[in-house]
């Protein structure tokens, strides 16, 4: 199981048993605690299936051996679609062994499914699913993707999610005091599609080539900027069982979202260092990278990429965070999704020659 103490483990198991009785928790595992043997890969290709912007004039870029090429629709009468959210196709390679992972699923199934078709992505090559955190703009396309492609995917398909927090009910602020539904991923829907779920509150190796950070330690100057509200509640197998990681008085509360189990997906590229992919980075991109370094024992950072949730950051705080990123000395910095134009501009100012931009459809190549 994990390194939770016996009391917490029993509470968690009891909650899982109740949910299983309601048909909600079939095929669930907890990642084992303890050191992991972080694999080294030779190459990595990342295809941006969904992001917030399209650019038909996008030109190839290269920084310190990291290459970005534009992606075009295979049908000139059907454009790629962009939306708020993120979905990345990850294709690592070690020797002759290739893997294909799908990280996050955008906001709507129509966009991820259409873009996969227009980019000629073969869904039958996808071996493993990864979910970064419980925001709807990262899992909203998931169930529609599964409805269309489950028959093409492995019979023993596994999804690696950051932890129990991923399945809480979330709300968006609709005004000073009003809340609107921002979705809840129901594990029973995954069970219906015969998807095995692994909760990665501890670090875990995925497919022999990637690894996750597990729960991220918050040790930097970073703070969680305002985003959604979250409800810690489990009822009839839906929602989240917070009893093993939060005080009992939090049960049923709706509070500002701290994304307790958001995790980053990482690779160790031979002779280059770590590639850290933060889909939203609510817990802090510096915290995420430091956690990857701690888990892997690798201090060299080759690339930091993904969403950094700094679009809403005040200018003075943004300047500080970019300065802290600069101290990590990555070879390349690739902001996407919720990072914000303000972040990209400040990063270009503080880290000239290291910042790459992407668009929906782009292919990012490492070690190639």
UniProtKB/TrEMBL annotation:
<dbReference type="InterPro" id="IPR006311">
    <property type="entry name" value="TAT_signal"/>
</dbReference>
<dbReference type="InterPro" id="IPR052926">
    <property type="entry name" value="Metallo-beta-lactamase_dom"/>
</dbReference>
<dbReference type="Pfam" id="PF00753">
    <property type="entry name" value="Lactamase_B"/>
</dbReference>
<dbReference type="InterPro" id="IPR036866">
    <property type="entry name" value="RibonucZ/Hydroxyglut_hydro"/>
</dbReference>
<dbReference type="GO" id="GO:0016740">
    <property type="term" value="F:transferase activity"/>
</dbReference>
<protein>
    <submittedName>
        <fullName>7,8-dihydropterin-6-yl-methyl-4-(Beta-D-ribofuranosyl)aminobenzene 5'-phosphate synthase</fullName>
    </submittedName>
</protein>
<dbReference type="InterPro" id="IPR001279">
    <property type="entry name" value="Metallo-B-lactamas"/>
</dbReference>
<feature type="domain" description="Metallo-beta-lactamase">
    <location>
        <begin position="96"/>
        <end position="150"/>
    </location>
</feature>
<dbReference type="InterPro" id="IPR041712">
    <property type="entry name" value="DHPS-like_MBL-fold"/>
</dbReference>
């Amino acid at each position: 199981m994990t390194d939770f103490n016996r009391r917490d483990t029993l509470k968690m198991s009891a909650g899982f048993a109740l949910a299983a009785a309601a048909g909600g928790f079939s095929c669930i595992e907890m990642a084992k605690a303890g050191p992991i043997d972080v694999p080294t890969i030779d190459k990595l290709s990342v295809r941006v299936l969904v992001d917030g912007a399209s650019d038909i004039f996008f030109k190839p870029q290269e920084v310190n051996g990291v290459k970005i090429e534009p992606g075009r629709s295979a049908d000139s009468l059907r454009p790629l679609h962009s939306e708020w959210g993120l979905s990345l196709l990850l294709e690592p390679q070690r020797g002759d062994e290739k893997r294909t992972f799908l990280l996050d699923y955008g906001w709507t199934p129509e966009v991820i499914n259409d873009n996969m078709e227009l980019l000629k992505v073969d869904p039958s090559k996808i071996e493993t699913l990864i979910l970064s955190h419980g925001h709807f703009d990262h899992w909203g396309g998931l169930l529609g993707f599964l409805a269309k492609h489950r028959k093409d995917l492995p019979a023993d398909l596994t999804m690696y999610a950051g932890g129990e927090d991923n399945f809480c009910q979330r709300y968006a602020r609709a005004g000073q005091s009003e809340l609107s539904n921002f979705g809840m991923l129901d594990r029973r829907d995954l069970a219906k599609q015969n998807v095995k779920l692994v909760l990665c509150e501890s670090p875990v190796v995925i497919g022999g080539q990637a690894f996750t950070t597990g729960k991220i330690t918050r040790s930097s100057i970073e703070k969680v900027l305002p985003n959604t509200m979250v409800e810690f509640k489990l009822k009839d197998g839906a929602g989240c069982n917070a009893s093993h990681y939060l005080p009992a008085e939090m049960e049923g509360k709706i509070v500002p979202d701290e994304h307790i189990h958001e995790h980053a997906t990482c690779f160790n590229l031979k002779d280059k260092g770590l590639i850290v992919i933060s889909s939203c980075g609510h817990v802090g991109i510096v915290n995420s990278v430091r956690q990857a370094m701690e888990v892997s024992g690798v201090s060299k950072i080759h690339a930091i990429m993904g969403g950094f949730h700094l679009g809403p950051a005040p200018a003075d705080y943004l300047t500080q965070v970019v300065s802290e990123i600069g101290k990590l000395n990555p070879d390349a910095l690739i902001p996407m999704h919720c990072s914000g134009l303000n972040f990209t501009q400040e990063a270009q100012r503080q880290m000239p020659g290291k910042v790459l931009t992407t668009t929906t459809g782009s292919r990012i190549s490492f070690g190639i």
